[in-house]
Design a protein that fits this description.
This protein is 71% helix and 0% strand. The protein has seven helices and no strands. The longest helix has 24 residues. Helix 3 runs antiparallel to helix 5 and helix 4 runs antiparallel to helix 7.
Length: 134
């Protein structure tokens, strides 16, 4: 089960880390739908495994399986919002960016990038609140 958690965290980290051109991949509709399907599949694993007798730690970590699907939905929402506001797609940035898009990113782009990066941790916190140890 720990491998699935690592896959979810890696999935979100790679797409939100600002590595060169990883976010541009999500602009392609066919690839976006493929990754969305993968993320929905990971969320379905949560529905299947949540009924099994799991330890409290596994129950808390199982909420990270919602991170990829949440990331994909929020990415599309944020990209649409930026597209309407700035007439361009969402730009991710990092300190050592070499592409022009990253250099033109605004504070709103950075805020959305931070939000997308924090999703796995927020789901884990939410899971720990639900399955508090007595």
């Amino acid at each position: 089960m720990i491998i699935v958690y690592v896959i979810c965290i890696t999935y979100v980290w790679i797409l939100s880390s600002g590595l060169p051109y990883t976010h541009q991949i999500l602009r392609q509709p066919k690839l976006y739908m493929t990754l969305l399907g993968l993320s929905v599949f990971l969320a379905l694993i949560l529905l299947i495994t949540i009924n099994y007798p799991l330890s409290t730690t596994d129950k808390v970590l199982s909420f990270t399986l919602l991170a990829p699907v949440t990331f994909m939905i929020l990415y599309k929402f944020f990209d649409t919002l930026i597209l309407r506001t700035y007439k361009r797609h969402l730009y991710f940035t990092n300190r050592y960016a070499s592409n022009d898009e990253a250099k033109e990113s605004k504070i709103l782009d950075n805020l959305f990038q931070i939000t997308l990066s924090a999703i796995p941790f927020l789901w884990a916190i939410f899971g720990s609140i639900i399955f508090k140890r007595n």
